[in-house]
Amino acid sequence: MEEITNKNVLKILENDYEECQLDYVILSNDVEYEHEISHKKAVIAFFDIIAKRHRVGNRLDYGSFSLDEDKMICRLYSVEEFFSENGSKFGDMTYWFAFHNPPYSTPYTVDDFRRINNMLFSDSIEIYLWNDDFSDYFDDGKEWWGTALWSIYDYKKNRFVIIGASLTD
Q1: Contact in structure between 45 and 1 (CB atoms under 8 Å)
Q2: DSSP secondary structure, the chain, as one string
Q3: Averages of pLDDT over each 10 residues, the chain, 169 residues
Q4: Whole-number pLDDT of residue 16
Q5: 8 A C-beta contact, residue 82 and residue 165
Q6: What is the phi/psi pair of residue 54, to 5°?
Q7: What is the reported pLDDT for 58?
Q8: pTM for the full model?
Q9: Phi, psi of 154 (to 5 degrees)
């Protein structure tokens, strides 16, 4: 898997949504798709990639992250729930909540949320929601705001989008 860096969607995320505090990584898929196995590989690649970024979440120069693959647990997550524009339900942070309600407010609206998702995803995706016990990436969010990590495979685009959320004040 390789990070896709030459797509317009990345330029739009970087330029038009620079205050967004979620971590997005887009990965090509160059092997046969194996559902959970492939998602796990994509999540591991996500951590390698974000460790090299200047900003992760709402922190600068974070550095590398620990990762315990034996503690990685995921479950299928419904497309409807993923794109729901309602707040967090007990137990799971929703993608909308993570996008719209970070610790420090952003100027983004539901129209921005929809625009980003229309650029990132086709109508043929499979989503996994991951636990937050396998990496210190989640430590900031565990303080109070919350954590989430979704891996999304797009069948039509043959790529993964990994979205991480772990923020602090």
Answers
A1: yes
A2: --B--SSHHHHHHHHH-TT--SEEEEEE--S---THHHHHHHHHHHHHHHTTSSEETTEES-----B-GGG--EEEE-HHHHH--S-PBTTB--HHHHHH--SS--S--HHHHHHHHHHH--S-EEEEEE-SSSBGGGHHHHTTT-EEEEEEEETTTTEEEEEEEE---
A3: 82 83 91 96 93 58 81 96 76 85 85 94 97 90 86 97 86
A4: 86
A5: no
A6: -70, -40
A7: 44
A8: 0.91
A9: -105, 110
Among residues 67, 56, 60, the alpha carbon closest in space to that of 25 is found at 56
Q: Which two tokens stand for residue 95?
A: 């993608």
CB burial readout 40-57, b (16+ within 10 A) else e: bbbbbbbbebbeeeeebb
